[in-house]
Specification:
Length: about 260
């Protein structure tokens, strides 16, 4: 096992990419605190993970006091945090001229501010231990533009910028900070996006899914486990020299 006894916090852990990451890190021997908004789903996943002990903590990562309390609870149950995976996120679409201030703030709050708040809570434990891993789940939208999702793109670009800046601050202190940037991935977020396009255009779900897949040079949708495998590598000792990077998992879309 590559991460025996390491305490890893994964946000947005109840489903999709977050759940795949949790299962993968647990299989490597890590002890998991699963964070998200749906406590019952988090608890159900915690019970099925190998090894342990594991914990589930409900939190809105956009709320500073709630994040502070959640990390205090996690630390109280499983000890200092060694690994943080900032996976919690949302995606909403709208033409720029119809993007409301409320939509803009929602996208920044959960995607960017949430990553900032969680990193601030986890980092002191890592610095004290002289070892830590922060992995931010960004998106190819953090590396290029997409039409009709300007708020989401801005937030994910912010996540990549935060990753690069923090990585330089802690580079000499045993902590690495990296971003993983998936392309279209087979999650509820993608399925919701497909449903919205179907509703607006009348096209079939299969046609819309094929359109999303066509953006990947491999002609397919990325699977959550492929993202989780990249996170597992970044969290291990073998990736100790990898710092401040934004690694695209997208079949060559950004080549």
């Amino acid at each position: 096992m590559g991460l025996p006894g390491r305490h890893a916090v994964v946000t947005g852990a109840a489903r999709g990419i977050g759940a795949a990451i949790a299962r993968t890190l647990a299989a490597e021997g890590a002890r998991l605190t699963l964070m998200g908004r749906h406590h019952d789903a988090l608890q159900a996943l915690a019970r099925e993970l190998p090894g342990g002990p594991h914990a589930a903590v409900a939190v809105d990562v956009a709320e500073a006091e709630a994040v502070q309390a959640a990390f205090a609870a996690a630390r109280g149950q499983l000890g200092p945090v060694a690994i943080l995976v900032n996976n919690a996120g949302q995606a909403e679409s709208a033409p720029f001229r119809k993007t409301s201030a409320a939509l803009w703030q929602r996208m920044l709050a959960v995607n960017l501010t949430g990553s900032f708040l969680c990193a601030q809570q986890a980092l002191p434990d890592m610095l004290e231990a002289g070892w830590g891993r922060i992995v931010n789940i960004a998106s190819t939208a953090g590396l290029k533009g997409y039409a009709y999702v300007s708020a989401y793109v801005a937030a994910k670009h912010g996540v990549v910028g935060l990753t690069r800046a923090l990585a330089l601050e802690v580079a000499r202190q045993g902590v690495t900070v990296n971003a993983v940037c998936p392309g279209y991935t087979d999650t509820d977020i993608l399925r919701d996006s497909i449903a919205r396009v179907v509703e607006k255009t009348g096209r079939s779900a299969g046609e819309v899914r094929a359109q999303f897949a066509a953006g990947n040079p491999q002609g397919r949708i990325v699977q959550p486990q492929e993202v989780a495998d990249a996170v597992r590598w970044l969290c291990g000792e073998a990736a100790g020299a990898v710092n401040g990077q934004a690694i695209a998992i997208c079949g060559g879309e950004l080549a």
